[in-house]
Amino acid sequence: MRHESAPLTRHLRVLRERGHTVLEFRGEIDIAAAEEIVPHLDAATAGPDPRVVIDLSRIEFFDCSGLRLLYRARHRVADRHGRLHLVCAHPLTLRMLRITGLSRLLPPRPTLEAALEAAQEQPEATSDPV
């Protein structure tokens, strides 16, 4: 069951899905979009043990500002002993993730369902954060 916890904005929708906060990035993720997204990202990654999925399936453009958002989320979640999962199937964005090495730190899943299943399959006591 999905529960929308923040209003749909031009570049972001925030949902709750299976105990995870899903940040669904939308459209062109550039410096202007990043400024809009940061407060929501920070709210989703605040507190102990955050469970977050960043969904890039609805993006049309993704630059270094988007990469900074992913690194920011990863750092904040790791500091709080939480978990972060990524949804991405766009070939150019996947290439950027591979080139920067981010795909090794945050392996992308092709769909939100696959990311949520991966999150459920991780053992609680033995998993690395993020």
TrEMBL record:
Lineage per the UniProt record: Bacteria, Bacillati, Actinomycetota, Actinomycetes, Kitasatosporales
PROSITE patterns: STAS
Protein name per the record: Anti-sigma factor antagonist
Residue span, STAS domain: 10-119
Gene3D superfamilies given in the database record: STAS domain
Organism: Streptomyces thermospinosisporus
InterPro entries with a match to the protein in the record: Anti-sigma_ant, STAS_dom, STAS_dom_sf
Family: Belongs to the anti-sigma-factor antagonist family.
Transmembrane feature ranges: none
Secretion signal span: none
